[in-house]
Amino acid sequence: MSDRMPLARQVRSAVEDCPPREVPRRLCEVLSGGLPVDAVTMSLLTDTPSRQLLCASNEMATAIEEVQFTMAEGPCITAASEGEPVHLTDWAAGSRRWPLFAPALRERCPDIEAVHAFPLWLGDYVLGALDMACRTPGGMPQAAIEQAIEASHAVAQALIPAQRLLSAEDPAPPWEPADAVRAHWSDTHRAIGVVMHRRKISSETALALMRARAFATGRNLREITTDILNS
């Protein structure tokens, strides 16, 4: 694939004749290779309790997703809810905007210098969001940001088959990394159901209690979910 091919075209080309289950991984690979970034994640329903992680390109990407999922705040959640790109390049300002997320991510991944998030618009609906992290101070240059914005529209179109898989019978779509995807989908929702039943509360309140427990104990939501399901 030519390096001169526009990134949006690379996205469209990469998923031609691609099985729906392989689409998120293929997209992460294209974005990681086409932009000056060190980690890429993508998720659907990003700013809702039904958030679904689709792909994390590496351990750094998984860490970003886990911190945002646990804290219920961060750049990709804001990008999805506001429908605009969000850029975390100033950590003092980031800590004021996301007082739980920014310090937690800084502690877990001190080499991350910037996080860029882009909403995935499909018509007048936001499907989810992309997160991209950089070790370079200041993050992506403006030209790369413009490429990412253009590519995000192609990504949204490419993810339609993955969105349809969410309503399929398989409770844990086989996306990567498998353990994190399962934690962000079937396991968490099973744990929410357990807490709802035990406490006779709504799903939103159950998830809030799980997140509060994670924050209070310094653990992530995946670990709290495991505790609940094993108890």
UniProtKB/TrEMBL annotation:
Gene3D superfamilies: 3.30.450.40, Winged helix-like DNA-binding domain superfamily/Winged helix DNA-binding domain (1.10.10.10). Coiled coil: none annotated. Residues 176-229 form the ANTAR domain. It comes from the Bacteria. Keywords: Transcription, Transcription regulation. The keyword Transcription regulation applies. This is GAF and ANTAR domain-containing protein.
